[in-house]
């Protein structure tokens, strides 16, 4: 089993993700510089957080149009796993791997704090170890994380059970007060791909994968991916 | 022939524009009364093209491929020789 974390100029959560995968979860994980491309098949690719291309134009817009993203799309088209975290989620949305987009927070401030998320589906390779409706604590750190999508997109996301996470309060209520960035329907994690094999999410599970950091709730995303790959082998 | 395309990218009508809201609020703090305020981003692109129409088409392709995000943006292109 092999994971890859793709690094763009301006990625800054790449090593955190690699640390969690390799040292905390115990799987092989390469750091891949985007210009080097994917030189082998990977079971899963993580596009990490950061500020690729300085967020010029729009967050994720320029990285989404690099050659390595064509390779990542082919990887995803083959049914293999892609996880986009924060800037990685923005890149994933900009490249059309999930519908909609992430744009400037309703209050145009950078928000960096732990938030509560309600797990909306356990039916994905990323959320299978959670229970539907479970409340998890994972931090966010973004200024352009407000999810926006056309009404018909939101309808199909709901109908196809492709919302992975919504912002909620500690009791699991999805309310405007629990929505830090003004995201449509509090959505902050979207499942894409024919095999539900893409997850784009603004919160940072790699920052919540050890109890010493205040929460290990995010680790189940990586463990879910690992379990899925183990079953495929 | 050389043409200059002025490309304006703005949020579609009805899209929340937090930046505009903050600017409007700052203007209010300075004593200005404004009915509405919106923002847009302008790109000036100089390019070689066979005709103004071809330059226009090329600039629109740039919008479709990179400069605008169709989920939230609309764009306008003005071409001058």
Molecular structure report:
- The complex is a heterodimer of chains A (233) and B (81).
- With 233 residues, chain A is of the alpha/beta class.
- In chain A, 23% of the residues lie in helices and 26% in strands.
- Chain A has a single domain, classed as Class I glutamine amidotransferase (GATase) domain (Rossmann fold, 3-Layer(aba) Sandwich).
- Chain A has five helices and eleven strands, in the order E-H-E-E-H-E-H-E-E-E-E-H-E-E-E-H.
- Chain A has a nine-stranded mixed sheet with strand order 2-1-3-4-11-10-9-6-7, sandwiched between helices. In chain A, strands 5-8 form a two-stranded antiparallel ribbon.
- In chain A, strand 1, helix 1 and strand 2 form a beta-alpha-beta unit.
- Chain A is globular and about 45 Å long.
- Chain B is elongated, with a radius of gyration of 16 Å.
- The mean pLDDT of chain B is 97.
- In chain B, 35% of the residues lie in helices and 33% in strands.
- Chain B is an alpha+beta fold and 81 residues long.
- Chain B has one domain (2-80): 2-Layer Sandwich (Mth169, Chain: A), CATH 3.30.1280.10.
- The termini of chain B are close together.
- The A-B interface holds A 57-58, 61-62, 65, 94, 99-101, 103-108, 146, 148-150, 182 and B 15-16, 18-19, 22, 65-67, 69, 71-72.
In short, what is this structure?
The complex is a heterodimer of chains A (233) and B (81). Chain A has 5 helices and 11 strands, in the order βαββαβαββββαβββα.
Briefly note the structural class of the backbone of chain A: alpha/beta
Number of domains of chain B: 1
For the CA atoms, what is the radius of gyration of chain B?
A: 16 Å
**Uncertain residue ranges of chain A:** none
Briefly note the CATH topology name of chain B: Mth169, Chain: A
Class by helix and strand content of chain B?
alpha+beta
What is the typical, i.e. mean, pLDDT of chain B?
A: 97
Fourth CATH level, the homologous superfamily of chain B: Phosphoribosylformylglycinamidine synthase subunit PurS
What's the assembly state of these chains? heterodimer
Output the number of helix runs of chain B. Answer: 2
Name of the CATH architecture of chain A? 3-Layer(aba) Sandwich
Secondary-structure element string of chain A: EHEEHEHEEEEHEEEH
Amount of beta strand of chain A = 25-35%
Percent range for β-strand residues of chain B: 25-35%
CATH topology (fold) name of chain A: Rossmann fold
Structural shape of chain A: globular
Summed up, the helix count of chain A is 5
> Mean pLDDT across all residues of chain A, rounded?
97
CATH superfamily heading of chain A: Class I glutamine amidotransferase (GATase) domain
């Amino acid at each position: 089993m092999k994971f890859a974390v793709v690094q763009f100029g301006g990625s800054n959560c790449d090593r955190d993700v690699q640390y969690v995968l390799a040292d905390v979860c115990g799987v092989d994980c390469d750091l891949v510089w985007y210009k080097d491309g994917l030189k082998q098949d990977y079971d899963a690719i993580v596009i990490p957080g950061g500020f690729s291309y300085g967020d010029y134009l729009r967050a994720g817009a320029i990285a989404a149009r690099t050659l390595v993203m064509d390779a990542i799309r082919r990887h995803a088209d083959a049914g293999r796993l892609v996880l986009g975290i924060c800037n990685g989620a923005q890149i994933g949305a900009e490249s059309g791997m999930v519908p909609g987009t992430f744009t400037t927070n309703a209050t145009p401030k950078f928000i960096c704090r732990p938030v509560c998320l309600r797990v909306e589906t356990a039916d994905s390779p990323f959320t299978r170890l959670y229970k539907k409706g479970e409340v998890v604590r994972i931090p966010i750190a973004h200024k352009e994380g407000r999810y926006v999508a056309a009404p018909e997109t939101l309808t199909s996301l709901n109908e196809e059970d492709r919302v992975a996470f919504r912002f909620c309060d500690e009791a699991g209520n999805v309310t405007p007060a629990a929505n830090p960035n003004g995201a449509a329907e509090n959505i902050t994690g979207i499942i894409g791909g024919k095999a539900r094999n893409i997850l784009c999410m603004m919160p940072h599970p790699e920052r919540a994968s050890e109890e010493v950091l205040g929460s290990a709730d995010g680790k189940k995303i990586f463990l879910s991916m690992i379990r899925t790959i183990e079953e495929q082998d | 022939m050389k043409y200059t395309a002025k490309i304006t990218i703005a949020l579609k009508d009805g899209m929340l524009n937090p930046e505009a809201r903050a600017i409007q609020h700052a203007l209010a703090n300075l004593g200005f009364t404004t009915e509405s305020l919106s923002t847009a981003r302008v790109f000036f692109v100089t390019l070689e093209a066979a005709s103004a129409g071809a330059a226009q088409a090329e600039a629109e392709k740039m919008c479709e491929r990179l400069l605008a995000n169709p989920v939230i943006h609309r764009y306008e292109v003005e071409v001058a020789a």
